[in-house]
Specification:
- Helix content is about 20%, strand content about 40%.
- With about 160 residues, the chain is an alpha/beta fold.
- It has one domain: Nucleoside Triphosphate Pyrophosphohydrolase.
- The strands form two sheets. Strands 4-1-6-5-8 form a five-stranded mixed sheet, with helices on both faces. Strands 3-2-7 form a three-stranded antiparallel sheet, with no helix packed on it.
- The mean pLDDT is about 95.
Length: about 160
């Protein structure tokens, strides 16, 4: 996925220096309790749907947008699961980023899961006992989303 225009403009000013970005991740569950995953183009790993927020975008709305853009699934954010940081990452071009990561539990509303953009190699629904190997932290996000506790997790 190419970097959004606002990131490219920031990079013109700051070069490869660390950049703090708002990110969202969704644990989308269907009525059967299956979770929606995508296999990422950039690293080939299975992962929860995630993305960066646009300037001024509300986190839950931004995640719902990302889910639809990447998978053609319409979802509804139900609650915040956790808030934390991910990274820092150094990309092949030398850019350094760290993400504020807001994870939401979401419910499936409609649509047929499919690859809907250039960010995923595959998209699908997985039962909890049939999950593929996931990117670090994503299984923890799923476990927290399934917890009956309503309070969001954060690192003290």
């Amino acid at each position: 996925m190419p970097a959004p225009d606002y990131i490219l403009k920031l990079r013109e000013k700051i070069g490869h220096d660390p950049l703090w970005l708002p990110g969202v991740r969704g644990v989308v569950l269907d009525d059967s309790g299956r979770v929606l995953l995508g296999r990422r183009v950039d690293n080939g790993h299975w992962a929860l749907v995630s993305g960066m927020l646009d300037p001024g975008e509300e986190p839950a709305r931004g995640l719902v947008r990302e889910i639809f853009e990447e998978t053609a699934v319409v979802a509804e954010a139900e609650r915040v699961v956790s808030v934390g940081t991910v990274g820092p990452f150094t990309y092949p071009n030398g850019d350094v980023c760290e993400f504020l990561d807001v994870v939401f539990r979401c419910r499936y509303v409609s649509g047929t899961a499919r690859v809907n953009d250039d960010e995923s190699l595959e998209v699908g629904w997985f039962s909890l006992d049939g999950l593929p190997e996931l990117m670090p932290g994503h299984l923890t996000s799923i476990r927290r989303a399934l917890s009956p506790e309503e309070a969001a997790h954060f690192e003290p």
